[in-house]
Each structure stands twice: as structure tokens, then as C-alpha cells.
Design brief:
Layout (H helix, E strand, L loop, with lengths): L1 E3 L2 E7 L4 E7 L2 E3 L6 H8 L18 H14 L6 E3 L6 E3 L6 E2 L3 H9 L10 H4 L31 E7 L2 H4 L3 E4 L15 E4 L8 E2 L3 E3 L2
Parallel strand pairs: 8-11
Antiparallel strand pairs: 1-4, 2-3, 4-12, 5-6, 7-12, 8-9, 9-10
């Protein structure tokens, strides 16, 4: 995992025209999205439509990602970051836990930008698999150039689930997705783009990557 330094990021939403600043504490983020091989080792399941050990796992819901984080934490002797409430329909995050978790969207955007201010951390064809170059398929992780902090596939290949609710007053339990995917046009593969989906939603261009809190 890569240690991401503390910083400040301005989030924005094109739908509402709103922007807001967030202070981000230092944290750790996996250099790559979770792969199919890693997911199968922990869960015993291979949910993805395409198959390949080094392909990002996809076809996973937000809930699948949360359960994977807890399972991997327990396997590695760490304190799980999430407490799933009775009935399995709500979850709380333990901010002090040292286990694996999903990044917040502020952490995700701060990590994606890697100190830059532009919409991308390099020329899109050099850093991301998207509709213009992916050949209508997903690709193994790490096949494009990383950003300045050593993080790969922050844009393109698969969208990353984030911890945050998108807009609970309007969309209820919908969670944030970031980064763009292999089937998206170039305008979706930008550091600021926000997408939303129901936490039970599964599709072949949505995966996730792991974060950990720095104590």
C-alpha cells in the first residue's frame, strides 16, 4: 500500500453546482484495485464477467466490498473497520480501526490528483483504459502509468466504490463511485467526476481498492 500524505481537496458536484473543501489526514491506499485473484483468495468467489487473476475484480456491490474489507482484516489480524448492524442493512465505520476499508471520496480524489490541480494526472491514453483505447474489454491492473504517488488505474479500467453516501436527501442509500471505467468516454475519466449507485448494484466496470487509516 502507498502512504498518501495529508492535504486539502476541493470536491464539486456538477449536478448541483456545489463545491466544498475537505481536509484529508494521511492514510494508506492500495496501489492497484483489488484483483480477481485477491478477491477469490479471501472470499472463495469469482464474481467477475471476464476472467483473469490480474484483472480487477468487478461485478461486486458496495456491500461485497465492505464484507471483503472486514474478511481481509480478520485474516490479517487487524481490527475490522466496519460494524454491520443487526439485519445487515446498515453499517457503521470504526474510525480508529487499523483494518482495511474503502476510501472516502475526499481521500480518493486527493490520492488521484497526487498534488496536481488538473483533471487528470497525465495524458489519458498513457494513464487509463477507457472507451477510446480499451478495445471494449477490461485490462490487468498496472498496465498504464501511475500517478506521481505510485497509484495505478485511478482513472479508467474500473470505477472504485467509495465509503460516502452520494446525496442522502435525494438518493437515499446510494454510494459514491469514482474514477471511470473501461467502457466510459474520456469525459468520465477525470479526478472530479462523481457517479452514484445503489449499494447492492453489480456491473462489469465497477470494482474497488483498499484503504487503511494511519494511526
Amino acid at each position: 500500500m502507498v502512504t498518501v500524505p495529508a492535504g486539502r481537496v476541493t470536491l464539486s458536484d456538477r449536478r448541483t453546482g456545489r463545491s466544498w473543501d475537505v481536509e484529508v489526514a494521511a492514510f494508506r491506499l492500495s496501489a492497484f484495485p483489488v484483483t480477481q485473484e485477491e478477491y477469490a483468495e479471501v472470499t472463495g468467489h469469482r464474481p467477475s464477467a471476464a476472467r483473469g487473476a490480474r484483472l480487477p475484480v468487478e461485478g461486486v456491490s458496495w456491500w461485497d466490498a465492505v464484507r471483503f474489507c472486514n474478511a481481509l482484516s480478520l485474516r490479517d489480524g487487524l481490527t475490522p473497520a466496519y460494524r454491520v448492524r443487526e439485519g445487515g442493512e446498515a453499517v457503521d465505520r470504526d474510525a480508529g480501526a487499523d483494518g482495511y476499508r474503502l476510501p472516502t471520496e475526499a481521500e480518493w480524489e486527493h490520492a488521484c490528483r497526487a498534488g496536481g490541480t488538473g483533471p487528470r494526472y497525465g495524458p489519458l491514453d498513457d494513464i487509463a483504459w477507457y472507451r477510446g483505447n480499451a478495445g471494449d474489454r477490461i485490462h490487468p491492473v498496472g498496465g498504464k502509468q501511475p500517478n506521481a504517488w505510485g497509484l495505478y488505474d485511478m482513472l479508467g479500467n474500473v470505477w472504485d466504490w467509495c465509503w460516502d453516501l452520494y446525496d442522502p436527501e435525494v438518493y437515499g442509500t446510494y454510494r459514491v463511485l469514482r474514477g471511470g471505467g473501461w467502457s466510459d468516454e474520456h469525459w468520465s475519466c477525470r479526478a472530479s467526476v462523481r457517479r452514484r449507485s445503489h449499494p447492492t448494484f453489480r456491473i462489469d466496470d465497477v470494482g474497488f481498492r483498499l484503504a487503511r487509516t494511519v494511526s
